[in-house]
Amino acid sequence: MNPSWQRITALARKDAGELARNPGAILPALAMVLGALFPPFLVVVGAPMIAGRTLEESGEFAGAVDAIPVIPELAALSGNALIQAFVFHQFSLLLLLVPVVAAMSLATHAVIGEKTSKALEPLLVTPISTVELLMAKTLTPFVFALALTWLAAVLYLIGIGVVAEPGVWQAVLGARTAILFGLLGPLVTLAALQLSVIVSSRATDPRSAQQLTSLLIVPITIVFVAQLMGAFVIGPAALLLGAVGCVALNAILLWIGVVTFERETILTRWR
């Protein structure tokens, strides 16, 4: 059966209204935006001011030149500008945590709120399908998380344009960034939402659900730290490969979610 967008959007609007009445649910996501934006500017602006020398003079970023074959946008720069662009490219991966945190916070509150209030059970007598129900429960958090991520990306680029040397923001705004925020970001957001919904259907309170779904943060953090330590450089090809992996992960999570949200499961276990 094809999804009915009228039913889906009606439920999504209801969730949006609940979100407006519970602004505390978005605070973790807003805190993550600040936490993701601050570190690269501390490295590029704060560290040179404290040390009294540029990043190039510090001699600690030799990997910037080696990254040019992987990130071709860097080839147009040299010296301190090259290092700044390299640092901003590395830290852009940290912004992927924004949709993950937003998805975890919003989805867990929405689903567990339905469980505790038993507001979802009346929907089961309507002709809504399991897929429609899943889409409805993830639509509002998905739109919010993705919008917040793109807002963070815009603020990131604006900040780079203000504090970095000429040409740096253009080097950051390239194929790698487009794939990161235009393709991988939405896929990671969807995976985080589906995982949050699945875990929340088994948890009894938002805190325990968020603790379990926070496991999705671990692989992103590991990859981020590894690239900072010089283990590898993440270019457009690696991000595309990651996107393919996320597509497969989302397909698996969708299947699990459909099983989890079967009517009989909700009626017998959500009590």
The number of distinct helices, counting runs of at least 4 residues, comes to 13
The N- and C-terminal alpha carbons lie at a distance of 29 Å
| Rg from alpha-carbon coordinates | 21 Å
Provide mean pLDDT, rounded: 83
In short:
With 271 residues, the chain is mostly helical.
Key structural traits:
elongated; 75% helix; 271 residues; mainly alpha
Give a written overview of the molecule:
With 271 residues, this protein is mainly alpha-helical. The chain has one domain. 75% of the residues lie in helices and 0% in strands. It is built from 13 helices and no strands. α6 runs parallel beside α9. It is elongated and about 65 Å long. The two termini are 29 Å apart. The relative contact order is 0.14.
Task: Outline the fold blueprint.
Elements: H1 5-21, H2 27-51, H3 55-58, H4 63-66, H5 79-92, H6 97-117, H7 130-163, H8 168-172, H9 175-200, H10 206-213, H11 217-228, H12 236-260, H13 263-269
Helix pairs in contact: 1-7, 2-5, 2-6, 2-7, 6-7, 6-9, 6-10, 7-9, 9-10, 9-12
